[in-house]
Each structure stands twice: as C-alpha cells, then as structure tokens.
Amino acid sequence: MDISINKYISETGFCSRREADKYIEQGRVTINDNIASKGNRVQAGDVVEIDGEPLKKKKSTVYIALNKPKGVTCTTDLKDKSNIIDYLNYPSRIFPIGRLDKRSEGLIFLTNDGDIVNKILRAGNQHEKEYIVTVDKPIDLEFVKAMRNGVRILGTVTQKCFVQQEGSNKFRIILTQGLNRQIRRMCEVLGFEVTSLKRVRIMNMTLKDLAPGKWRYFTKEEITNINALVASSSKTEKGNQGNEGMDE
Predict the structure, then answer these.
(1) Annotated catalytic residue within 101, 113, 115, 247
(2) Residues 75-108: tens digit of each pLDDT
(3) Nearest in space to 97 (alpha carbons), one of 64, 54, 135, 142
C-alpha cells in the first residue's frame, strides 16, 4: 500500500478528501505520531490518527437519499443546531455530498464513501441536477432566455442550461454547474427573488415517493448506476478548484 494521506482518510469513511485536507492543514492528523502534511504518503503498517484517535478501517458503505426539508443545514458541524447529521441521527458517521441552502429543500445524498464524494464533486463530471423554482413575481420569455443563456454572477457567466417555465412564477432548471447559491444569485441579477427552491433529481435519481424529511438507502441498482456515471472521473488528486459541484 502506498497512497496519499487524504485518500487514505477518505477510504476509511471518516470524511471526504477535501475535509481530510482541512484536518491536515489544522495539524490534527499524525502518521506514526508525526504531524502529517499534504502530500504525505501512507505505507502498509503506518498508524494514522486524527486528534489522537486511530482511524478505524472502513465499515460497509452506506448510501442514503434524503428529501431535505427547509431549515436543515448541510453541514457536519455539530455546533450548528440545524445540522443535517443531527437531523438524520444515523447510527454511524456519514456526511452529505455537496450542499443545499438552508432555505432550500429536496434531494441530497449522504454517505460514508469518501471516494465517491470526491468523484461526484469534481467539476469535470458535469452531472445533472434538476430543480423546481418559484420566484416572487411572474416570469416571462425574456427571463427564461436569460437564465438559459447565462447570467453573470461571482465574476463569471453561468453555463448555458435547460430552463422551462412551469407556471406564472415557477420554472424548472437543470444545472451541470454547482456555483455557490447559483440559482438564487442568477434570479437576483434578473430582479427576482426565489421564494421556493426544490431539487427533484441528481443524475439518475429522483425524489420519487420520498416525502419531505424522509430518507431511504440506495438500491443496489442505483449504486451500480451511480458508480458507472462517475467511473469516468479523472484519477488525479486534484479537486475542482474550490467549486462545490453539488451546490444549487
């Protein structure tokens, strides 16, 4: 065995590679009692500890689909009283893949598989996320065209995407990008405020009959399909340059 320290940590199911890098930067990771730094490698027989506790080998992988209700924050920080971990109260350590804004609702995945988190969050994967969005006033064709063709936010222009009007002030949008609070920011630039935002699909998975606040395990078929969809992920250690690929 000879793998990078962040990959080793993620493969134990403790957290994603990106989170592992934060632990390393904070000096909380040791290899054989020596403080680890980014780029260190782990060899067979090495003892890796976080905050003085040895990392345990990964248990069986868990993949969960949750219909997140409004008011739940997609963070593993237990100091945040509305955090998604306490909300789900799952008996073993899991973490969300990407984020949904606290005010937003809908489909989010949670897992203990740090490797699949890393693959899904890569910007290069271009995985589809579908949302139903309601705004504070009626929309028109000009609004739909503008959303489709790209809106300048966060110093860039959003990628062209599918947008379809669903009602006087409601639309469906499919994103492959994941800029921070992307849909809300796009609407704000065009003079609209989002009053309701619901993610109804990630890649091949939809909410189906999952009621708000309820969760279920992935089926074996869904796990196989997700793994096939991310199989083309680059094998490099690079992340996606600070862009959380599963943001709204």
Answers:
(1) 101
(2) 999 899 999 999 999 998 899 988 899 999 999 9
(3) 64
> Residues 6 or more apart from 195 whose CB is under 8 A from it?
134, 135, 136
CATH number given to 2-54: 3.10.290.10
Count CB neighbours of 14 within 10 A. 21
Which CATH superfamily groups domain 126-202?
A: Alpha-L RNA-binding motif (3.30.70.1560)
The reply to whether 2 belongs to the active site is: no
User: How many angstroms separate the CA atoms of 164 and 155, rounded?
Assistant: 25
Q: Where are the domains of the chain?
A: 2-54, 63-124+208-230, 126-202
Q: pTM for the whole thing?
A: 0.74
Contact of 84 with 74, CB cutoff 8 Å = yes
CATH class of 63-124+208-230: alpha beta
Q: What are the backbone angles phi and psi of residue 83, rounded to the nearest 5°?
A: -65, 150
Mean pLDDT highest for which of 52-61, 121-130, 133-142, 235-244? Answer: 133-142
CA dist., res. 16 & res. 108, Å (int): 16
User: Are 113 and 61 within 8 A, CB to CB?
Assistant: yes
Q: What's the Rg (C-alpha) of the chain?
A: 19
Alpha carbons 222 and 5: distance in angstroms, whole number? 29
What contacts 125, CB < 8 A, 6 or more positions away?
119, 229, 230, 232, 233, 245
Supply angle C-alpha 129, 134, 139, rounded to 5.
110
For the CA atoms of 227, 228, 230, 232, the dihedral, rounded to the nearest 10 degrees, stands at 140
